[in-house]
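Input (structure):
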């Protein structure tokens, strides 16, 4: 059986690292990470923050994903080749 089709345990989804993700300086990386997170939200993933009093909560998956990325709640991994390209983009 293909491992990609085996469902993951519910507990593994709830575990998050204790330290926040490093801030995203590249707007292109921000959009990529937020788009992938929005796809997860549309497929049923839970929102990682609670609406604060006085600030209305976003309803669209894309807005929620962007807020999660902005707050550092979305963890991502950049492959080595892309990390070098993002570093040179951030300098210019």
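Output (sequence):
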């Amino acid at each position: 059986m293909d491992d990609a089709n085996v469902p993951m345990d519910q507990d593994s989804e709830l575990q998050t690292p204790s330290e926040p993700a490093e801030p995203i300086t590249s707007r292109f990386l921000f959009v990529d990470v937020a788009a992938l997170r929005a796809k997860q939200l549309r497929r049923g993933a839970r929102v990682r923050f609670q609406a604060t009093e006085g600030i209305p909560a976003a309803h669209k998956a894309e807005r929620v994903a962007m807020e999660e990325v902005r707050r550092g709640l979305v963890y991502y991994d950049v492959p080595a080749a892309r990390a070098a390209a993002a570093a040179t983009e951030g300098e210019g």
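Notes: Residues 6-12 have pLDDT under 50 and may be disordered. DSSP finds four helices and no strands in the chain.
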